[in-house]
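Figure 3 (text version): structure tokens given as input.
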């Protein structure tokens, strides 16, 4: 471990298993790694290798059968539901491939949902909201429903929602997977720009080698195991 860098996330001996009929499937098999504050780490591997499962466990959206996930020095696996929800609201952000926007809410309402569930008194939501909207170029779409937005615009709204609470760690599960090349490149540029401006850690699952090559490190998964760690 580099003594000059702070470990923001530590994953140790994480195992996640599922029952399918009478068979036990090991989705994540003793995953162990550390991620430093401010890093951009890409997780790659073939379909079914356990990438998304591992990402969701690290983000506190799923629980492992054994092992530990420590974020900012706190073991999120030992937290109860209420404490975990508060921790995630304060420090973690999640971007999904399929946007997961609430269809009855406008873009603005979707973005502001996290602020209703976890109030952060240490910064101005209004100023941060304006900066996000300007950076993501969605100011003229705020009063539109998701069905009235293009795929790229929906993903920008999803990114704004994930970043509205200024999370320290942002998890992204194939964030450009449903976009064409031009939109994928543009959304990725915006995501990296906001990461730098807010000094965040970004952990991203992707199949796109062009995107992964921009990461500080690449973790390669196969059959639930991390088989390689590359710079």
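Below: residues designed for each position.
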């Amino acid at each position: 471990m580099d003594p000059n860098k702070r470990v923001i996330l530590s994953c140790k001996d994480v195992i996640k298993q599922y029952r399918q009929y009478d068979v036990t499937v090991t989705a994540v098999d003793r995953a162990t790694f550390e991620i430093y504050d401010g890093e951009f780490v890409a997780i790659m591997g073939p379909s079914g290798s356990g990438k998304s499962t591992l990402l969701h466990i690290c983000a506190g959206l799923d629980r492992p059968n054994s092992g530990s996930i420590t974020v900012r020095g706190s073991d999120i696996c030992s937290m109860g539901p209420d404490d975990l929800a508060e921790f995630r609201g304060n420090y973690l952000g999640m971007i999904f491939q399929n946007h997961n926007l609430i269809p009855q809410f406008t873009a603005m309402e979707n973005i502001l949902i996290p602020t209703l569930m976890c109030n952060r008194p240490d910064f101005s939501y209004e100023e941060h909201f304006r900066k996000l909207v300007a950076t993501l170029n969605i100011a003229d779409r705020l009063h539109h429903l998701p069905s009235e937005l293009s795929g790229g615009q929906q993903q920008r709204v999803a990114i704004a929602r994930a970043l509205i609470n200024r999370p320290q760690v942002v998890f992204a599960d194939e964030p450009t997977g449903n976009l064409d090349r031009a939109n994928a490149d543009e959304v990725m540029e915006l995501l990296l720009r906001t990461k730098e401006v807010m000094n965040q850690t970004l952990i991203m699952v992707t199949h796109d080698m062009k995107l992964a090559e921009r990461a500080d490190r690449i973790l390669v998964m196969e059959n639930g195991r991390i088989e390689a760690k590359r710079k």
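Residues 90 and 167 are 6 Å apart (CA to CA).
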